[in-house]
Amino acid sequence: MASPFLRTRHTLSSTLRPLARNPTPRINHAVPRRPASTASSSSGGSSAKTVAISTALGTAAVLGYYYATDTRASFHKYLVPRVIRVLFPDAEDAHHAGTAALKALYSVGLHPRERVQDGDATGAKPLAVNVFGVELSNPIGISAGLDKDAEIPDPLFALGAGVVEVGGITPLPQEGNPKPRVFRVVSTDGLINRYGLNSKGADAVAAHLRERLRTFARSIGFTEKEMLDGEAGVPVGSLKDGRLLCVQIAKNKKTDEKDVEAVKKDYVTCVNRLAPYADVLVVNVSSPNTPGLRDLQATGPLTALLSAVVEEAQKTKRKVKPRVMVKVSPDEDDDSQMEGVVQAVWMSGVDGVIVGNTTKKRTGLVPKGVRLTSQEQKNIMEDGGYSGPALFNQTLNLVGRYRKMLDSYSLKTEGLGDAFNKNQKVIFATGGITNGDEALKVLNAGASVAMVYTGMVYGGSGTITRIKNEMREKLAIEDKKQ
């Protein structure tokens, strides 16, 4: 740096100028040089120190950025969820704050993301699974409820999910049930919610999803029509290779569930608006917080409803039509009820079933040895649907039974061989899944995708990565045994 040198020259010149007029006191000639030399070395040392500090701070900032935005970072599990519970005693406020934070962080590139790809060193993908003709990079999904209005599908995909389900979305905007309507049961890692399908409405969500698709199309040099025609080579909903976006739809609360035609109109309206931007449409007839909704799971009305949805989905103006699934309740678990759902699925042409939702039951939710606080005892008895690890055994049981019933019906109607394989109905499992071992169990029981919801509330944004790592570790151990 030239500045110390220039300062020295200036000092020396100033000193010599009076001596030229009166040369006698030459003894002072060297005096200014020492301060100049001292200033130079001091400045040089200061500069070196500044560079060192700046480098250290820059390195720390980069390392901090990579750590904080990596889903493997432990603080995502052990710190963030606890801090959020302290800052937001109301669970719904915490939900909205989390959604807003992910949206804001994603917009500036500071969002948590999975930095380790699903493929191993050889390029193989041990967790890959084929669903609806798409090879998913992994079979772990995020259930509807976290992103009710499709505001953050991309930040959720960034967490490593193979499937993201947004919604539920109703034809018209509705507020849902009065607040408070979400309650924590921390001792069981559980939640009670009675949101009541609060939604901005199909038009608003469709507009947002369309703009998302257009923005992506422009970024890769495609038009909206070319995207819808599949020319970009990625699913139209997820906009990501090896991923699927599910859009859950439901009826408005004010629509009389006994008026089947009015109910069909609600769902068809949602399909008409949202189908162009969904890889999979999910028909929700299992929310416990909309009066009469679960009554639609009876064979007759369910068949009529699903048939109308499938017919409308086939009219979607794009090359690859969206698939249709139906989301069923964990509480309707009698064989006769389940057989009615299976019959409706096959008769309507629906592509699969999402097994599980929140439960209205309150027995068997607290493990032995766990003591609830007085507030938790009150919360767990609130009206609404319970979600949490206690639902896992019921989910596993239902997946196995639905797999057997769906396949049995398929054999009766389609025969053996290729026809059966081609038409086998897909199952997604949701309810109580919190770790890799549980995910593998539901997959082995007949599901193609294991979905999480409450597990992310308590496990943080690294939950998907952790579950997949646990799955890979267990599969590696099993491979060594063989």
TrEMBL record:
<keyword id="KW-0285">Flavoprotein</keyword>
<keyword id="KW-0472">Membrane</keyword>
<dbReference type="GO" id="GO:0106430">
    <property type="term" value="F:dihydroorotate dehydrogenase (quinone) activity"/>
</dbReference>
<dbReference type="InterPro" id="IPR001295">
    <property type="entry name" value="Dihydroorotate_DH_CS"/>
</dbReference>
<feature type="compositionally biased region" description="Low complexity">
    <location>
        <begin position="33"/>
        <end position="47"/>
    </location>
</feature>
<keyword id="KW-0560">Oxidoreductase</keyword>
<keyword id="KW-0288">FMN</keyword>
<dbReference type="GO" id="GO:0006207">
    <property type="term" value="P:'de novo' pyrimidine nucleobase biosynthetic process"/>
</dbReference>
<comment type="similarity">
    <text>Belongs to the dihydroorotate dehydrogenase family. Type 2 subfamily.</text>
</comment>
<protein>
    <recommendedName>
        <fullName>Dihydroorotate dehydrogenase (quinone), mitochondrial</fullName>
        <ecNumber>1.3.5.2</ecNumber>
    </recommendedName>
</protein>
<dbReference type="InterPro" id="IPR005720">
    <property type="entry name" value="Dihydroorotate_DH_cat"/>
</dbReference>
<dbReference type="GO" id="GO:0005743">
    <property type="term" value="C:mitochondrial inner membrane"/>
</dbReference>
<feature type="region of interest" description="Disordered">
    <location>
        <begin position="12"/>
        <end position="47"/>
    </location>
</feature>
<comment type="pathway">
    <text>Pyrimidine metabolism; UMP biosynthesis via de novo pathway; orotate from (S)-dihydroorotate (quinone route): step 1/1.</text>
</comment>
<feature type="domain" description="Dihydroorotate dehydrogenase catalytic">
    <location>
        <begin position="127"/>
        <end position="475"/>
    </location>
</feature>
<dbReference type="Pfam" id="PF01180">
    <property type="entry name" value="DHO_dh"/>
</dbReference>
<dbReference type="InterPro" id="IPR013785">
    <property type="entry name" value="Aldolase_TIM"/>
</dbReference>
<dbReference type="InterPro" id="IPR050074">
    <property type="entry name" value="DHO_dehydrogenase"/>
</dbReference>
<dbReference type="InterPro" id="IPR005719">
    <property type="entry name" value="Dihydroorotate_DH_2"/>
</dbReference>
<dbReference type="GO" id="GO:0044205">
    <property type="term" value="P:'de novo' UMP biosynthetic process"/>
</dbReference>
